[in-house]
Amino acid sequence: MVDRYPDQPVIPSTKMLLVPMLNLSIAIIASMIVIALLARYLPRTSFYRRFALMAANPSGPSFSAPREFVTGLRISLGAKGTAVTMLRPSGKGRFGDQLVDVVTAGEFISAETPIVISQIDGMRVLVSRSQISS
User: Fold this and answer.
1) CATH number at residue 101
2) Residue span of the structural domain in which 102 resides
């Protein structure tokens, strides 16, 4: 910080900036030396080894995912069921003895309305209002 006294100019001169710039330069050089020493010797300390993972990671993918997503649902496209809750746009539907979380394509369907599965994407089951034909 530059010390300014009442009889000195507003803009500091080079002589006034010399000590603060020297202090800043010394601090930057000292911090670079400390960082270099820490980078060199800190990984060898027991303190560092307690916090850092030292085991090598095996190469290749860590988990191999199945190509098909197993849902565990025993329902198929075109299965007919009933909306148990109001679907706005998501809710629950019953297909046979299974209660399934279902989603509509944006439409609201009231409870106890017949529904049909139009798409299955993983655990997302898209349903629509069933067109009951006589």
Assistant:
1) 2.40.50.140
2) 80-129
pLDDT digits (tens, 9 = 90+) for 29-52: 999 999 999 999 988 888 888 888
What local confidence, expressed as pLDDT, does residue 133 receive?
Answer: 54
Residue 124's H or E segment, with its range, is: strand 124-129
Task: Give residue 64's pLDDT.
Answer: 65
Helix, strand and coil percent figures for the chain, each rounded to 5: 30, 25, 50
Is the residue at 71 inside a domain?
no
Q: Which amino acid is at 122?
A: G
User: Does the CA dihedral 66-72-74-76 come out positive or negative?
Assistant: negative
State the pTM of this model.
Answer: 0.47
Strand partners, 82: 94, 114
29 found inside a domain: yes
